[in-house]
Amino acid sequence: MTGGPLTDPRTGPPPAGRPGSGPDPDGTVAGGDGRKLRQLAELPASVLRGVGAAAARELAELGIESVLDLLTHYPRRYIDGTRLVPIADLTQGEKASVLGEVMRVSRPSGNYGRGRRRSPSRVVVEVSDGSGSLQVVFFNQSWRAKQLAVGSQVLFFGTVGSYRGQLQLTGPTAEVLGTRGETETEAGAGTEGAGTEGAGTEGGGPAVSAGRVFPVYPLSDKTSLTSARIGRYAGEALDRAGTFADPLGERSRRRFDLVGRTTAFNDIHRPTAMDDHGSARRRLAFDELFRLQLALVLRQARLQGDARGIRHVVAGPDGSPTLAERFLDQLPFEPTDAQRRALEVIRGDLAGPLPMHRLLQGDVGSGKTVVAVGAMLTAVEGGHQAALMAPTEVLAEQHAAAVRSLVDGLTVPDPATLEGRRPLAVALLTSKTGAGERAALHQGLADGTVDLLIGTHALLTEEVGFRSLGVVVIDEQHRFGVEQRAALRAKGRGDDGSGHDPDLLVMTATPIPRTAAMVVFGDLDMTILDELPAGRLPVTTSWLRTPLETEEAWSRVRAEVAEGRRAFVVCPLVDGSERVEATSAVAEAERLSGAELAGLRLGLLHGQLPSAEKERVMADFRRGDLDVLVATTVIEVGVDIPEATVMVIEDADRFGIAQLHQLRGRVGRGGDPSWCYLLSENDTPEAAARLGAMEASTDGFELADVDLELRGEGTILGARQKGRSDLKLARLLSDGDLVVHARELAEELVADDPELAGHGLLVDELRIFIDEDEAEFLFKS
Ligand code: ADP
Ligand code: MG
To answer: Does the predicted model carry a pTM greater than 0.85?
Structure first.
């Protein structure tokens, strides 16, 4: 019945299929004998015995509609039933796991403590496991009375104490596994297939027996579903699914040390030993990552397949130095080795026929702008133009000013002039560029007399057209959507579509760990600037917790200003409203000017100010006409003022690590010692982890690891959602090896068989997990 419909509830497991014996002769990727995920995706969960309309509704609450949803609703942990201690054998003072049934729940009232303090509310639960009974007490957790209803089968873990001569657990962890009816008759049924025993004990004891491993599933308050019931449904689904078709052949499984898919699904839902689910998880996580990498590698291949790239000129005329080389030579500093290496790689990309899709990751202050300009000048060398898009006006203006000064004196050939050359032309375009200036700019872009265009989203407006756009750079790429990046690139083809696909360099100063980047930016090549310019001193970072400690920050600000240097004060982040945030910044600037920072020249910068005002304040601060800039997070990205040496961040616990690191990156950019003060009285473990990490490290990549560990991958993946919803088990940090393996295999496969013509099963699976547009793009033929 392999591959047939799954309809008859009494049908047992079909005879074992032969995974790995498919049409793929070398066994890299197997063919399709056995149950396909597609079939399971098409079956509603209600085909399972015991899943009636009500249960189906409850499952839907958990996002489970199909049998595949059910089988990919993975346990979040397991309880080792083999290590349970019978209540009769408990010893006072030891930590123990106890599995028992709730016999009685009470909420005694009244004062039993000494003194006049109100005693906390109590929930007292009496638990029995057939060998004896035990009192379990919870203080100030009145919801426990509802959670631990009479008849529940509950696993407790805690230290055994005693009260008035009776053994007692106080405030243990408690995991409800099921209810009496379920576990007695059903847990047993659900485990038959795995060959374990599920028989209950007799006489009022727990129906769930010791000696097996219990999966604990993610549940919802909105349903009465229990882990035992989900486990039973999953067990039935597994019995009836039988052998799974395995897209990975014998050879690949051995190569990456992966179990077969049938084993994996069975062991993740009903492991017989505590060790089993580890290898099951590894295999299923690999599958998630493999599908994802396959989609990314295919996407890369498709983009290149359709591309009309430019082979850029990377050598100067008659052996003379190129524009980019002249640019590097005239820099006021020596480029770092990392900058040189990055430019070399980019030069290679630009010289090739396929458009570059490259991500440049570099910590704050690593000098990405120089690399970007080098790439842009290579476009100009061959008579093309280049555009750089930044997320804010402040940043675009700063880039324009910096680039203008960096390229000052460079000339490009121009037969229309007397000397045959003209100065390299750099233009700035933001939403506040005036109409007249704008019209002239459009003209210059169209006739090619503007070489480098720098700006904000304003670059995306329809009127902006290039004579020949050769390189596109996106700074702080995470601030832009996929569509915006694509829209700027599309300007290379032009209105009539006759142009080229420009080479693309996206830059980010929010480093993410390498394997995470392979997932999030897997359709981009990657270069890392892993070196800061020489002479940079690490920013001394202190977390100040009390008003007394905080005084250190303000006295540092005063001392540095007295030496002619400058400081930032970042005001608290206010949820949701830029206006409220602005108001609080205004108030804080006011307060500081009358208190800790009296007598200093304070400027104010927030998102609600008119552009002209923002620009004026920035210019004053840059020039040194202001000593201190009190600001909201508008200064978060990119702002580059070498004389700024102190950064004070108020309510620092409200910011994430990446944001704090960005803010700190605003100082320490010159050669002077710098300080970052994190003000926060909040010393909850979460805040302490973040602020402590900031104190301990100034390395953006190291902090990115910490951040990923603390926050999980949700936030990183959120940045580029598409096709990533499939990652349920895979962990970007701990599964780094799997990411690498998955990438390897995906690349081999696509190189071998770009259309995946011989891999129907894989393609079919991929289509389940990616959205329609993406599938259309990847498999249009
Ligand atoms: P980020 O990578 O954060 O965007 P920037 O490109 O803004 O960094 O560079 C930060 C500062 O360092 C700028 O003032 C820039 O001129 C300077 N800079 C860049 N490269 C070097 C270098 N090799 N040596 C010294 N200073 C450099
Ligand atoms: Mg930058």
So the answer is: no
